[in-house]
Each structure stands twice: as C-alpha cells, then as structure tokens.
Write a structure and sequence with these properties.
The chain is built from eleven helices and 14 strands. It is α/β, with parallel strands linked by helices and about 325 residues long. The protein has two domains: about 10-225, Rossmann fold, CATH 3.40.50.300; about 240-305, Alpha-Beta Plaits, CATH 3.30.70.100. It has a six-stranded mixed sheet, with helices on both faces. Strands 2-1-4-5 form a four-stranded antiparallel sheet, with helices on one face. The chain has a four-stranded antiparallel sheet with strand order 12-13-11-14, sandwiched between helices. Strand 12 and strand 13 form a beta hairpin. Helix 3 runs parallel beside helix 5 (about 150-160). The longest helix has 16 residues, at about 180-195. The radius of gyration is 23 Å and the shape is elongated.
Length: about 325
C-alpha cells in the first residue's frame, strides 16, 4: 500500500478552505475557531476522539449544519450561502453505510443515480464504472443486506462517487470492519486521490491516520495541530520519549508523576511512555525512583515516538493550558 506524495504547489489550489469555523449548541461549543485548508487531490485526515468535533465539522462542510460563526468554501462554494450547490459537488460516506438492505446492489446504485440526478445517458456508464471499480459486478443482483461488511463498504463508497464528486467526505468509513478490509479500502482511497479527488476522512485509528498526506488533530472542538504525520512525529523528537516496562504500571505512573518532573507520562497497554526534556529526569533517575518504591523494572529505553505519543502529548498540553469543557457526544 503506497499513499504516494501529497499534491504540492499553488497551481493545484485548495478545494476546502475553513476560517475561524465555530459551531455552538446552546452553551456548548462543538467546534471552536477552526481554520485549515485542503489541496486538490490531497488525503486530509481529521483525527480525534469521539465527541471532539470531527463529525460536526464535516456536517458543516457538507451543508447539513450552519456554522455559528466563521466560514469557508468547499469546491469554491460558500458553506453558508451555497449549501445546496455544495451537496451536488461532494460525495459523503458515513460509518453507518447509508444503503437500503432490501434493495439489490444495482438497485441501490440506480436509486443514488436518481438522487444525484445523473443524466439518463450517463447513468449506465457510471453504474458500470462503480461495479467494476468496487469489484461488485458478480454481486449486482444480490440483496445488499446479505453482503459482508467489506462489500457493503465498497458499495457505499461507490454510491458516494457515482456522480463524480470533486470532494469526498468519509466519516469514520472503516469503523467495524476488519484490518484486511480496511487496508484494501485505503488502496481505493489512494486511487481516487491520484485521479484528483480531494479526500477528507475522519478517523480515530492511529494506523489510518498514518495513511493521510496531512492530519488535523482535533480535541474538544479545537484544532491542536495540522501537519504531515512525519512532521508531527519529528516535532516530538526534539524531546526524548522513554518506554518503561515494569510491574504495576498504573501505580508506577502515579509515583513518577508525583516524584519527578516529567513533560508527559501515559499508559500504553501494560507499558508507560514518558516524554522528558533535557532539564527533566532521564532513564536512570526513573528506574531508580521506581525501584526505591518497590517496583520491578524490566527496562527503560528511548524509543521513536508514535503518532499516538504525539496525540497524547498534545492533548495533555492542551488540558494544562485550557479549562476543561464538559464532554458531550457529537
């Protein structure tokens, strides 16, 4: 699987531009002054936990929700005044796969062809393209409800690109499918990107985030970073990340938090990841502290930071600087 290089150069232009986008629901701010742009043909990832504001942002960009303030454009159209025109220029696929189980594969494509008002003379051509593109020809007469998750996913994507959109929004499209199916799905995403389609995808899978040309990290409605995955990790390598393998890691984390001056410390399964600066405690001091407090330490070693390390570090830094906002679902 090769994601290729992100498109470069101003000549390609930006197909999504957002400036100070804000959405409030009563007293809760779901999206708070978010600004970013996405280039033509780019695979742009929106990474964040549930409730961070990912889906709210997508719904605004798709013309489903009105922003409270701020603005932007999608495919050159204004997200506040040209919402109906935007809907005809974009494709949208959610994790729930908006398909009709009682219809066959072909009938679902016919239905969406009508929804998108594809001209009669072109509808058959586009349907055959999608069936071929998604390797669905032998299933065209099968009831959609009988298909395995991977085939449903390809059909849902096919319905979303049936009308040849210039921008494709994918809202956690691989949720609930196995890793092999997810990998194949991303091969299709790269093919679309290479053809010039701009891909905007939300995810909470770290391995999927690595597949994107650029990432926007969103947390509590705020964009806390926006860069390539490599650049995000490179920024963290200016500090040292240590992995600690010891017994009773949760207790060990509490001891280190109270006894030593650390940049960040997080629990990763049965291991601890600690971010230290030049002026803070190193591996010897960490091991000594844990042993003095009755912990068996298997090892403390320097590691290359993962995208998860980056995200956790940025989130913890955000929480230290900003007052906590009440968690609600999107």
């Amino acid at each position: 699987m090769d994601k290729g290089s992100p498109p470069m150069g101003e000549s390609l232009g930006n197909t999504v531009v957002v400036q100070d986008l804000t959405k409030r629901f009563d007293s809760f701010t779901a999206v708070n002054k978010v600004s970013f742009s996405v280039r033509k043909g780019e695979v742009f990832g929106f990474l964040g936990p549930n409730g961070a504001g990912k889906s709210t942002t997508i719904r605004i960009l798709c013309g489903i929700l009105k922003p409270t303030s701020g603005g932007g454009t999608v495919a050159g159209l204004d997200i506040t005044t040209q919402t109906e025109a935007i809907k005809s220029r974009i494709g949208y696929m959610s994790q729930k796969f908006s398909l009709y189980d009682a219809l066959t594969v072909e009938e679902n494509l016919d239905f969406y062809g009508g929804i998108y008002r594809i001209p009669r003379e072109k509808k058959s051509q586009r349907k055959e393209f999608v069936l071929d593109f998604g390797d669905l020809k032998k299933y065209r007469g099968a009831l959609t409800g009988t298909l395995p998750a991977g085939l449903k996913q390809r059909l849902a994507l096919g319905c979303a690109i049936l009308h040849e959109p210039s921008v494709l929004f994918l809202d956690e499209p691989t949720s609930g499918v196995d890793p092999i199916v997810r990998r194949k799905f991303w091969d299709v995403i790269y093919d679309l990107s290479a053809s010039g389609v701009t891909i905007f995808v939300t995810t909470h899978y770290m391995d999927e985030a690595e597949n994107c040309h650029r990432l926007g990290l969103i947390y509590r409605g705020e964009l806390i970073a926006c860069e390539t995955p490599a650049a995000l990790k490179e920024n963290l390598t200016q500090q040292e990340v240590l992995e600690i393998v010891c017994d009773r890691p949760l207790e060990a984390m509490q001891i280190l938090e109270t006894r030593l001056s650390l940049r960040d410390i997080s629990l990763f399964g049965a291991r601890l990841h600690v971010v230290v600066g030049k002026e803070t405690a190193g591996s010897f001091r960490i091991q000594q502290t844990l042993q003095e407090n009755g912990h068996q330490v298997e090892r403390v070693e320097s590691i290359q930071p993962s995208l998860e390390d980056v995200f956790v570090t940025l989130v913890q830094a955000h929480d230290r600087l900003a007052p906590a906002q009440v968690e609600v679902t999107r």
